[in-house]
Amino acid sequence: MTISVSSGVSTTPRTTTTYHLGSIEQIPPGEGRVYVVAGRQIAIFRTRDDTLYATQAHCPHRNGPLADGLVGSHTVLCPLHSYQFDLRTGAPSMPSCTALTLYPVTVDSSRNIVLQLE
Ligand code: FES
Predict the structure, then answer these.
(1) 108 is in which domain, residue-wise?
(2) Which ligand 1 atom is at minimum distance from the Cα of 63?
(3) In 3D, which of 59, 94, 56 has the Cα closest to residue 80?
(4) Which of the listed residues 75, 76, 81 should we mutate to test ligand 1's pocket, taking the one with most ligand atoms within 8 A of CB?
(5) Rieske domain spans which residues (predicted)?
(6) CATH number, position 29
């Protein structure tokens, strides 16, 4: 499932824009979803303990759809070739692969997803 968000709601002097992506309930625990935010595809993962992580949507190995991967406590397993990535750091399990790009994401008091993009 891909969810589109076209405009942010606030901008800081460093040109970081905050995007409110809607309820965390759009993402079942232990799964990921792709959001198109200002034309960029971002994968958002919700772990079973309700922690959110945001990364690039496609695997740096061969463009696998990371949001379709298996989500662990703080990891995602790419569905194409089973490379594992640490969602806290972006680090891959295979040294030949590059790390994921990460984006700051939180949940606000209304349980809405809040993403920051530069
Ligand atoms: S495309 Fe992700 S591990 Fe190969």
Answers:
(1) 2-117
(2) 1
(3) 59
(4) 81
(5) 19-114
(6) 2.102.10.10
Is the CB of residue 98 below 6 angstroms from any atom belonging to ligand 1? no
Phi, psi of 78 (to 5 degrees): -60, 135
Structure tokens at 2: 């891909």
> Based on the structure, what is the number of domains in the chain?
1
Answer whether 81 contacts ligand 1 (Cβ < 6 A). yes
pTM, 2 dp: 0.90
Per-residue pLDDT tens digits of the chain, which is 118 residues long: 677 775 666 555 668 999 999 999 999 999 999 999 999 999 999 999 999 999 999 999 999 999 999 999 999 999 999 999 999 999 999 989 999 999 999 999 999 999 999 9
Looking from the CA of 90 toward its CB, the CA atoms found within 13 Å total 17
